[in-house]
Amino acid sequence: MATLAKTAAPLPVSLGDVMAAHMRIRDAIVRTPTLISRTLSELTGATVYLKFENLQFTAAYKERGALNTLLQLDAEARAKGVIAASAGNHAQGLAYHANRLGIACTIVMPTNTPTVKVVQTEGHGANVVLHGDTFDAAYAHARLLEAERGITFVHPFDDVRVIAGQGTTAIEMLEDVPSIDTFLTPIGGGGLISGMATVAKNWRTPVEVIGVEAELYPSMYNRINGTQMPCEGDTLAEGIAVKEPGGVTAQMVSELVDDIVLVSERSLEEAVSLLLQIEKTVVEGAGSAGLAALLQHPGRFEGRTVGVVLCGGNIDTRLLANVLLRDLARSGRLARLRIRLQDQPGALYNVARIFDAQRVNILELSHQRIFTNLPAKGLSLDVECETRDRAHLERLISAIRDAGYQVSLVELA
């Protein structure tokens, strides 16, 4: 991987900093399990260990860096309080631990933040300020309030205290599973991977560190490799949809991270679905990025002992339902077939008999007589159905064609 110019100066976060953070926060966070996934190991060709950071109280690793920062504030800073700009996991992690420690916490969010996120953050005791239509506007307002009120701004990733706190994830993983030789870590702003790489490269046996970004937001990849791919789009992994990585984190990633791979939206969706189906655990899009990399680049990790951080589990339930249904459709277990019929008595009945004979469950029917390019006596019938697998679906399509009907499968993107 091409890198930024390396410096002779020591990096801003050391293994000692991460070890100190570990001692500082360990009694107030969940030591989440690192467990082998035998099924995912068989599926990918690697030995896969999962770190269940979605089991933290606020369902994300962000608590680690937030708490490490809060515990290092002096009495005056604690009395004045803290502030952050975030509509995600950083907001909830900071709010929860600030409230627990009796420190006033203000979170600035864009005005279009979903109400459920506002309510959840307020539920942790924070004062939520809605400002601007974008994160950048909310961030700028938070820095203004910081200056006006003399309160401490807690950056979500570009802060050495935050980075050291996030790195405690790696300490736990390597203490629990010393055989791990590769970390697959999501990259947004770069705080988590910077902390984990600090541990990995200074551990008893050095560990390879591979970062993972969504293809739609390759910001750190661009920074390190000198590319200019666009950072935009509606990604499932909104938790790592960062347009500009941090300055501190970019330096550390350049020095310590071995490679960065990009993953598609389809791989992210598949990873979220597999984690729920196989591991019975709910993971958000950003949290599934490590597994998505294993699925999309299996040859890169075959034979390795890989530690994957499931860094968060905060996903909208309706979005999760859509992801699961889309995965069923791609696997052939759900399908929409478009069948051309003659508009005459018995047409629907005759088609339904084919579904019955093939033991396929019909979920929904939709006729189209008007908005179609078929002749006036023709109609288009869409049938949503449930099959056992792709082979079962192919047998159904063959049976429909054998009966003399034109049929096509409505494919997902």
TrEMBL record:
Names of the cofactor(s): pyridoxal 5'-phosphate
GO molecular function, one term: threonine deaminase activity
EC number of the protein: 4.3.1.19
Chain coiled-coil ranges: none
Reaction(s) catalysed by this chain's protein: L-serine = pyruvate + NH4(+)
First-level EC class: lyase
InterPro entries the UniProt entry points to: ACT-like_dom_sf (IPR045865), ACT_dom (IPR002912), ACT_ThrD-II-like (IPR044561), Ser/Thr_Dehydratase (IPR050147), Thr_deHydtase_catblc (IPR005789), TrpB-like_PALP (IPR001926), TrpB-like_PALP_sf (IPR036052)
BP GO terms, sorted: isoleucine biosynthetic process; L-serine catabolic process; L-threonine catabolic process
Residue ranges annotated for the ACT domain, each copy included: 336-413
Pfam family, one: PALP
Origin: domain of life: Bacteria
Keywords, in A-Z order: Lyase, Pyridoxal phosphate
Homology family: Belongs to the serine/threonine dehydratase family.
Name under which the protein is recorded: Threonine ammonia-lyase
Species of provenance: Sphingomonas aracearum
Origin organism lineage: Bacteria, Pseudomonadati, Pseudomonadota, Alphaproteobacteria, Sphingomonadales
